[in-house]
Amino acid sequence: MSVYDYDLITIGGGSGGVRASRMSAAHGARVALIEAGPLGGTCVNVGCIPKKLFSYAANFSTEFIDAGGFGWSPEPVAFDWKTLLANKDHEIARLNGIYARVLQDAGVEVIAGRARVVDAHSVEVDGKILTAAHLLIATGGHAVKPDIPGAALGITSDQAFHLDTLPRRALLVGGGYIAVEFASIFNGLGVATTLIHRGGQLLRGFDDDMGKVLAEELSQQGITLKLNETPRELKQDKGHLQLVLGSGNSLEADLVMFATGRRPNVDGLGLETVGVKLAGNGAVQVDDFYCTAVPSIHAIGDVIDRVQLTPVAIAEGMALARTLFKNEPSRLDYANIPTAVFSHPHVGTVGLTEAAARERNAAVDVYRTRFRPLKATLSGSKERVFMKLVVARDSGKVLGAHMVGDGAGEIIQGIAVALNCGATKAQFDATLGIHPTTAEEFVTMRA
To answer: In which element (H, E) is residue 398 found?
Structure first.
């Protein structure tokens, strides 16, 4: 008989923790999962799911406008924020229930409470000590505000999903995917929106062309961009907010949202006291197999701050379960991870950026195209799609694919399969396109 209560105790009920727990139980482990909040973590509750639902809602305003070019004359359009919130909350509650049921069906014991690691094999939950052969930290991360006077007057993306009313004017501070997504959401819902970013280009870490093209498209849609500007102070002034910028200029708004970064959720876990090493930003340091400096303690997902994407956390959880309970040491290959930004228009990308490809290859060929999609010819929209392929000249292998345009995430998902199979530009060229589609441009680019 085991000397421990469980084979695995998972702290954190987000996507990674749930998948690791389910798969470990499927491999025969006795598993408990501890979560202080609703199941599903950031993605389900204040991330991917509600954000995509809000993105759909915001996109309808453009669809109504475009419909006129196709002969439709919609009745006067009205939007009700409370209806969107209620329907969003209903869907999230449904997903919370699904997570609970799949864990129960897998035989995982779910414990509500806040956990603290006591030693290499023990955690405390509400004064009770539980033990396991292995502990898994899957506590995710949280949004942070900049260290400026008055920052408390602003919100983060967490609060944006629960606003009582839509603001008339909103300032978004940041240049990453959360900032540009919410800028598009607010703008699409009729809010006068300004995006402020300390850098000269949006979407740091993406291919340079993605940030440049997206900035042009956002501006065309009516979003005001303030690049190379930093927030210095946020003040309350006669019923509205005033954001003072580093340049000395001030902007007024009814809401200021900070999308300036995230930090791992490690406060109060007691990790350092038991020998787990943390990076400067609090990220749990692990090896290739998600093991910390303490052999029985493991970590996956946003808390290790490698690639903060839900499918990555899920894949890490599955790899860890195989390693621990199926005797199949497994680790995730972080190359060619596809991702999408649900701004308006969408951004999709997989593989190397042009800059990274040039660093790693003697010679690189770059194929670009930018065009007006067929739908825009009747709608009157000025939207233009951008696509890009990065190719190694010596082998012809496609190293990266990047897109700005409607459906970019859906299209890049398929392209990612090709890149993971090592597809060459010649194989792209030999593939027949589906006409007329936007996606066919990826197999017809010749220049």
So the answer is: strand 398-404
